[in-house]
Amino acid sequence: MTMKGRLGILFQYSWLLLISVLMFLGSAYAYDDGDFQVWHTDFEEKKINEKFKISLEEEFRWGNNASELYYQHYEPGITYNINKHWDVSLKYRHIYDKKGDKFKLENQPNLNANVKWELFGCSFENRFRLEYRHFDYQVDSWLYRDKITIRSPWKFTRLEIQPYLANEVFMNFYNTVFHRNRFYAGLGFSLTKHIRADIHYLLQSSKNSHKWSAANVLGSSIKLIF
Predict the structure, then answer these.
(1) 8 Å CB contact between 139 and 173
(2) How many domains does the chain fold into?
(3) Nearest CA to 54 among 20, 95, 92?
(4) DSSP 34-68
(5) CATH number for the domain including 116?
(6) Which of 179, 193, 203 is nearest to 223 (CA)?
(7) Is 17 exposed, middle or buried (0-12, 13-18, 19+ CB in 10 A)?
């Protein structure tokens, strides 16, 4: 067996083992202070030419054991492809986040840079995001996010099912505190030539008042490409 073949088998078994362990730990932790949530994202993308494309994203999140809609956002954006390894995008996110019994508004322009590469057949992507968070009910702030994704070199069945792992860290600029982490384990697949879908498990760990809490999320997304 070649080295690439051994790495492939190792990747598959490691991915399955990691999902099992994290789902068990996440569920155990949720008994204390976690919550089961459902998040769904719709994404539309239109290619303008070889360099530019425009997009629109809508996301909805249900918490309290997936019984209550507490968050939604709408995000138009434009992306410029520098080359096959780099692209940059400017987006504006309009957020409604439930605080108490009312939805509060957040306006959030954000700048993104994506770098992509391949190693041993696996696809890697690192997204850097800088957000300016504008509120009417609290002080504005800046947020930095860094997400790295690794995708399997193999796709399975006619749906081209492709396993992936990802991790994202969040850091506030005003106190440079690492206060949130999101770990993803999921499957991307193609429904048609122009429709991609995704289903994943997300373990979100957040720090509030010097205490960490967890949320266990079942996530899904649909992407339309025109």
Answers:
(1) no
(2) 1
(3) 92
(4) --EEEEEEEEEEEE-SSSEEEEEEEEEEEETTTTE
(5) 2.40.160
(6) 193
(7) exposed
CB of 220 within 8 A of CB of 201?
no
Output the pTM of the full model. 0.84
DSSP secondary structure string for all residues of 111-172: EEEEEEEEETTEEEEEEEEEEEEEESSS--EEEEEEEEEEE-S--BTTTTBEEEEEEEEEEE
- As a whole number of Å, the end-to-end CA separation of the chain is 41
- Structural domain including 107 reads 3-225
pLDDT in tens, 138-172: 999 999 999 999 999 999 999 999 999 999 999 98
Q: Using the 8-state DSSP alphabet, how is residue 193 labeled?
A: T
Q: Would you tell me how many other CB atoms lie within 10 Å of the CB of residue 53? A: 19
User: What distance in Å separates the CA atoms of residue 205 and residue 179, rounded to the nearest whole number?
Assistant: 8
